[in-house]
Amino acid sequence: MNALEPLTLRGAHVTLEPLSMEHHDGLVQAASDGELWNLWYTSVPRPENMREEIRRRLALQAEGSMLAFTTRLNDPVSGLPGRIIGMTTYCGIDLVLPWVEIGYTWNSASSHGSGTNAESKPLLLSHAFETLDCEVVVFCTHWMNFRSRMAISRLGAKQDGVLRARSRMPDGSLRDTVVFSILKAEWPQVRNELDRRIASRP
Q1: Pick the residue with more confidence: 80 or 8?
Q2: Which of 50, 59, 123, 145 is deepest in the core (most CB within 10 A)?
Q3: Which residue stretches of the chain are H helix?
């Protein structure tokens, strides 16, 4: 697999477009929707730290270890990308195997349960397996982030295990990291179920 280049992935309800500094104000508004930085088990940047977080992700992208996206909600009338609701990435990129991790994801509180995350993940998975030809796609989350763990399980990913005290959170607490994965051989069945779920939404 060659180095990942910025690209846009568009679905019926969401569009994932290359992260840029121009997204700063929209990302601040999205994070402020629910004051997501107050969720201690996540690492959503505070408004005053958003610019630095964008720079950090873009620096990792320049190094080849991350491909960063801004998530936009599509306008229900025109279908065109509209307001910004969050961020996501390909990270932990291994060009040799190849494999990617989908992570560093957050969406505004008002978009939770709306199906936007359920659509953005298949967009990323389809590109990873069908274009990048990845052998495996990995997801990691905090043990205490029950919403994230349930969402990853609903994607069809299998839990590989728990890495205890794997990293330290901004508040100094130690994070137990839950690792999930989907293998290339599992993707057709997972894709069919995700397509069925998306089609069944009103």
Answers
A1: 8
A2: 50
A3: 24-32, 50-63, 116-126, 146-155, 187-200
